[in-house]
Amino acid sequence: MQFTVLGSGAGLPSKKRHTQSYILDAVDETNQYILIDAGEALQHRILHTSIKPSKVRSIFITHLHGDHIYGLPGFLSSRAHQGGEDLPLTIYGPKGLANWLDITFEISGSRLNYPLSIVEVGHKDCIEIDNFKVHVRLLDHNIDSFLYVFKENDKTGALDPDKLKGIGIEPGPLYAEIKKADVFEFNGETYRTSDFTGPDITGRKISVHGDTRVMAEPEYLSLIDRSDVIVHEATYLDGEQEKAHRYFHSEITSVLDNLKNIDYGALLITHLSNRYEDGFLNELAKELPSGVHLTHDFFEHPILRNSQENK
Amino acid sequence: MQFTVLGSGAGLPSKKRHTQSYILDAVDETNQYILIDAGEALQHRILHTSIKPSKVRSIFITHLHGDHIYGLPGFLSSRAHQGGEDLPLTIYGPKGLANWLDITFEISGSRLNYPLSIVEVGHKDCIEIDNFKVHVRLLDHNIDSFLYVFKENDKTGALDPDKLKGIGIEPGPLYAEIKKADVFEFNGETYRTSDFTGPDITGRKISVHGDTRVMAEPEYLSLIDRSDVIVHEATYLDGEQEKAHRYFHSEITSVLDNLKNIDYGALLITHLSNRYEDGFLNELAKELPSGVHLTHDFFEHPILRNSQENK
């Protein structure tokens, strides 16, 4: 699994930073990409990657500000001509999204050749998609803005060949049958499969924030605790906490402070204002704790199993 | 005056060709740009030019297909932060545009800090803007698609110093007063200014087509006759006239054939399908008559006075 930032900028695009879009690449696990947000020119960014729009089956929109959605109509229209024919797609996002897309497609005469579902989500919803449960949590912004916590389903542990050999079962086709069943019989005895498997493999957890002020509620912190990857905005990087608060955004030191009592594998800082120059960003990057990254467009981060324990 | 193609592609963007947008640069004449169409990532294209969004005071939308309008909300929103504060902007386009922009700005919480007027236009309208009359003509596409003929206002010819010297007036401050008036007095005699000026300077004419089939109506051809620049789509470049007709588009040889009995300075071919490769385009370009150009993104064409006579 891999997390890719397609657009890392805030508000206005620059030559280097497009507005917000991310890809959660679960192709190895489910042959699918999950797209989060769709800033303008998302489809142009995708042209410079190996991402196949047809394999995007779920889109999560954090909030409806233009820098997070103006690329959605173009992406959806083009996907129809990029191998997406007949391949269903579901968009999850705040109320208002369905009406806007309907009107946009109606006036522009766009007809999609694949089934599109739009699901308007709310605070504390839990969405099930292939191999993930996605927890939705309202953040603190000037319009409804959501955190999406993607929790990969746990996997049953592997069979332990030593234990199976202990009761006389050598590796062979029987293993597959045992693995599928809760109980199995051998030589007249009945066994529970769980006594012969290793511990469950915990699914990975990726917490992606929409625009927000820093949030200190314990219930929220507990929800994102032990994330393998946290994606958080920091529109302000230079200590302007008050200004960040006034504009319903975050400042980087407050973000780091706020997360210091929870565990995580990596923290990806996004939604960087275009007013910061490379020199400043490079200096700042050197001072950040290990595992905290200032992202850029096309930034890629592999999501390892239990990466929070590798910290 | 100069015409710049910001997006020369059809339907889907490619790495090289964005979807449709053009700039008519009238900065030398009126300190303004006129934007025609607004494909997605228009604002990203502008970042690579010297164009100031604040100086765009008029936008003309040929038709509402996504590849011509999906960049409009982003451009309008960003213009507010790019020096456009308080500087009015008017958009001319087909019915439906105002409602779509209203809903788009409403759901995305966008507030512009400059006055925006949206004027929905129709067949045979004539719009007056600074230094231009713009004639609107319905084309032949599967939704309402317009031709805009930008006719620069004629200018009064220059004063002829030889004629003025003939009645005893030497060059001096009086010349400016004479030029402003229809009649003037000198040594007790009354003269008509027009008897002392050269012929009127004909304004330039730029005819920009939205997507269309080739149109043979004499009234249409007469409207675009003697254009300094004609901008016409040719989604098909390889003789597929029937297919072009079926999809309400044009094929290049039909375009050239259709325009062979009118005068024009230059013909800019746009809306090129991304399926054509550079090799094919280069070969085709060599075979085209002088003055006919296959355009690309960032293609620039100076618009000279009376350029149709320089042919």
UniProtKB/TrEMBL annotation, chains A, B:
UniProt-listed SUPFAM superfamilies: Metallo-hydrolase/oxidoreductase
Task of the protein: Zinc phosphodiesterase, which displays some tRNA 3'-processing endonuclease activity. Probably involved in tRNA maturation, by removing a 3'-trailer from precursor tRNA.
InterPro entries: RibonucZ/Hydroxyglut_hydro (IPR036866), RNase_Z/BN (IPR013471)
Keyword terms: Endonuclease, Hydrolase, Metal-binding, Nuclease, tRNA processing, Zinc
Top-level taxon: Bacteria
Catalysis performed (reactions): Endonucleolytic cleavage of RNA, removing extra 3' nucleotides from tRNA precursor, generating 3' termini of tRNAs. A 3'-hydroxy group is left at the tRNA terminus and a 5'-phosphoryl group is left at the trailer molecule
Cofactor remark: Binds 2 Zn(2+) ions.
One protein family per Pfam: Anti-Pycsar_Apyc1
Protein name: Ribonuclease Z
EC number per UniProt: 3.1.26.11
Residues binding Zn(2+) 2, per UniProt: D67, H68, D211, H271
Residues noted as binding Zn(2+) 1 in the record, renumbered to the chain: H63, H65, H141, D211
Any one GO MF annotation of this record: zinc ion binding
Enzyme class, broadest EC rank: hydrolase
Known cofactor(s): Zn(2+)
Family to which the UniProt record says this protein belongs: Belongs to the RNase Z family.
Assembly information from the UniProt record: Homodimer.
Cited CDD domains: RNaseZ_ZiPD-like_MBL-fold
Catalytic machinery residues: D67 (proton acceptor)
Transmembrane feature ranges: none
